[in-house]
Fold this sequence. Notes:
Elements: H1 4-60, E1 76-81, H2 92-109, E2 113-119, H3 121-129, E3 134-138, H4 147-162, E4 168-178, E5 181-190, H5 194-198, H6 202-208, H7 219-295
Helix pairs in contact: 1-7, 4-7
Amino acid sequence: MASVQDLKRRVRSITNTRKLTRAMELVASARLRRAQARIEAMRPYADRMLELMGGVAQAAGAVRLPLLEQREDVQRVAIVPITGDRGLAGAFNAQVLRRAFALRREAEAEGKQVVFFSSGKKAQSTLRFRRLEVGHAWTGFSDKPSYADAQAMSHALAEAFVNREVDRVVVVYNAFVSPLVQKVTVSEVLPVPTEVLQGETEEEYEHRYSPDFIYEPEPEEILARLLPVYVETELYRALLESAASEQGARMTAMRNASKAAGELIDNLTLAMNRARQAEITQEILEVVAGADALAG
Length: 296
């Protein structure tokens, strides 16, 4: 049985750990509110982008653009897992990587090659440890991604797709549902899905846009300019969703850790009190035995 002093040291150590987890929970909670605000501010822009692309695509008709090329013989698939730069967030990073590796196994079973473009230090270190092919790795902005970060990722992925280094690009990330729930999401960003260009029906399009509407420059050129922006927007949305999910997961993990630490402190305090009581009882017995010996 541990001594009272050992138990005191353990209680002191766990109490300090609980202070740390509580502080991290508060920090994650504050960052989560900011991340949610950024997502809400970004959604109207993303929705308007989809409306604009649908309208321009209707006006442009059938066009052949590099980012729209649907390749029948897909040889190489790029998988982009978006993780955090730090741990202590429960299963946040592990579930994204688990899904990315499942996609890799499925692609390789179909005879396709897989190359990773990772975001976040956790993905980078895991892929490096497994010695998997990595085309590019981005780190340092998982907590607070900027649009410039999404642009850098988009340019690298689009260049690899246009140059036929890859034939398909899939992004895997945690979509934010609530601080307690993060949903692993798989999104194909390249080639740009045809559903994105369908937009409104012809009747809705004619109702929204006048038949005499004149485009300057031509709709094909506008669409060619919008497609890269669409890819950037989708990646930025994924980065923001992942950032909010990371803070929600960390806040929940730290809250659970604080709760577990409190329960452990209670159990150790009870054990410490019992050990102290046993020591006192032993001392009393020794005093009584000594007194009896002197009396005898």
